[in-house]
Amino acid sequence: MGLMNLQASENYINRELSWLEFNHRVLLQALSGDNPVFERMKFLSIVISNLDEFFMIRVAGLRHLVNTGSDKADPAGLTPKQQLSAISKRAHKLMDTEYAVYRSVLAELNLRGISIIGASDLSEEQLAFCGDYFDQTLYPLITPIAVARDAHFPLIPGRSLNLGVLASAKDGKPNLFIVPVPSGVARLVALPCESGHVFIPVEEIVRLRLSTLFPNAVSLTSAFFRITRNGDLSLDDDAVDLLRAVKKSLRQRQKGEVVRLEISADAPDKLIDRLRKHMSIQGKDVYRIDGPINLNFLTKQLYDIEGNEDAQYRPFEQNIPDCLQKDESIFDTIDRGDILLYHPFDSFAPVVRMLSEAADDPDVMSIKITLYRVSHNSPIVEALERAARNGKQVFVLIEARARFDEENNIEFGEELSKSGATVIYGLPKLKTHSKIALILRRERGTVKKYLHLGTGNYNDVTAKLYTDYSLLTANQQLGSDAVEFFNSVTGGLPRPQLTGLTMAPYELRRRFVNELKMERRMVKQGGEGYVFAKMNSLTDPGIIKELYKTSQAGVKIKLIVRGICCLRPGVPGISENIEVCSIVGRFLEHSRVYCFGKGERQRIYLSSADWMTRNLDKRVELLFPVFDKECSARILSHLELYWDDTAKGRRLSSDGKYHPNESSDEYINAQEELIPYPADN
After folding, report:
1. How far is CA 620 from the centre of its chain?
2. CA–CA dist 599, 606 (Å, integer)
3. Boundary (domain end) residue, out of 286, 308, 330
């Protein structure tokens, strides 16, 4: 097959439609009887959050391309305008399905004595309660906003809940008002009831008392709505002061153009038309919602209702390896051999401990670390602050452009600076996405290097929810590479000369291409080529082309891709040697693993990078080898277990659709098998 065949649009799946297919797989988990009902609520909330970000970033970006006249097709052959049209059709269907699933979840909650009702279902006692709640709590917080026909539309925050009201005076002309629903109160209001738990959405109480807000209106029609704004930051890559540029862009985000309007299904057309005109959106940007708008309240308020432990996932205690339970310095333990942790099955506590001990260890001279996303009360940041106060040299590269964590990271950076740490808020033109911590310790007259390398963030909260690898090592070759890495990113030095680590945007793409070429050569020489990789997303056209060429050479390729996959497997003559599966389950599959070859020539790497163009060319990323044979074997066993998963695994076919893994009649849930439940259970 020639190069043109490999680049033909029919051999690629559109990125945006693939992402919507991923979100559909998440939605299937909200429907799955395998999952307890409270966990199904969580999956519904995840779908909502995912779609919000999708519209704020991806849809907004496509709209910008259309508005600037771009008609350049993507690798799948779709122009921005065609992509927006296809997205609208799929997203409308997805949201309709979501609310059908919501109603099924609601029915199961009712069986548990948990009800969410509307105004028409209120008893007299409950109606009186709602009136008192409005008068005493809501009324002081509500500020109706009049919107004249030719006036500027008020600056309504994106993703906030509002009531659109058409109030007609005696002259019969309807005037438009916006009533923001108070955000500082609980979304669900608990009502008096004889048994169980009964709730009403707070916006229903506001609508009940519209006559109080508009006493002179002779008629009132209303509907709940929520807008989604463009949330992408417009940054000048050449900005001298990156921190100031990010702060300025954050203010602009609040004014981003409207890209979606969600509104009650029963909204009158007149109200929708008025809102559309003010927001400059088309009919396809309007999503009629048959239920409460934004279902995030489900987990925020209902998940912890007592007496429903059987409606939640079975709890477990995270594992800490035996070698780390000894009464000795963690550095002595690491010095004896590499330690591999697989979160959340293995605890993130040893990573925190490593930095915490370093902060107090008189022999530790310096700590250098990259931070992308951290928790709000981060023990990692606390340890770094303590280390700086203890007089150690602490260098922190904290990425100020980590999407939707910008303000959090800036705040932490300022706290670290006050403690005496040296803080850099990222590099011009490149986001720093690598996960690396270097500790320099004085030992026996020399300086020894200790490393943490990871596939996921330094975030103790998400480490309980995401699957990621951590490698704790005293390998001095990797340590020397880490020194070169930090000197490069902090000092603006030329690309570092690394022998073990591989760094994007310099050598990572070439490294992956060379590994694939090596497997092709092996087949050509009469041997067996093999590729087994796991990642979040696969979108880069160059890597996909190399995978197609590798498949054509006869190399067996197995890919575990949780989210977006633009590669089309199983195409005769192009990708018949490629299989793709996706795992969506209790934990978010976040680890990146790249395995090439078999037997003695097998190479296993872990990385912060997916096979996406942004990771390979536009970010600072790291790929690191796993030298220890036991660690490598453990990683490979995880990959094989995921591949055999028949409970949560879905196989991608050449038509772009995902199907249950039916390779075995045995029920296999990989994540559940990895959970360290007590042996007697």
Report:
1. 19
2. 18
3. 308
Q: 482, 497, 512: which is the final residue of a domain? A: 497
> Do the domain assignments include residue 160?
yes
Same domain for 485 and 520, yes or no, is no
Structure tokens at 272: 């929708």
**Partners of 436 in the β-ladder:** 453
| Domain shared by 624 and 562, yes or no | yes
Taking every pair of Cα atoms in the chain, the longest distance, rounded to a whole number of angstroms, is: 91
3-state secondary structure at position 641: helix
**pLDDT score for 188:** 97
Instruction: Give the per-residue pLDDT at 170.
Output: 79
Burial class (CB in 10 A: 0-12, 13-18, 19+), 315: exposed
Catalytic residue among 197, 278, 343, 433: 433
**Crossing angle of helices 406-419/242-253, nearest 10°?**
150
The pairing of strands 258-264 and 219-229 is antiparallel
* DSSP H helices in 395-464: 406-419
Residues whose CB falls within 8 Å of the CB of residue 374, separated by 6 or more in sequence, listed in order: 380, 381, 408, 409, 412, 457, 458, 459
For the purposes of burial, counting CB atoms within 10 Å of the CB of 445, is it exposed (0-12), middle (13-18) or buried (19 or more)? exposed
What's the pTM value of the predicted model, to 2 decimals? Answer: 0.95
> Could you please report the per-residue DSSP string of 73-116?
--TTS--HHHHHHHHHHHHHHHHHHHHHHHHHHHHHHHHTTEEE
Task: With a cut of 50, list the residues of the chain below it in pLDDT.
Answer: 1-4, 681
Known catalytic membership, residue 433: yes
Whether residues 302 and 155 fall in one domain: yes
Q: What is the pLDDT of residue 151?
A: 76
Residue matched to tokens 């997205």: 87
Whole-number Å distance between alpha carbons of 592 and 562: 10
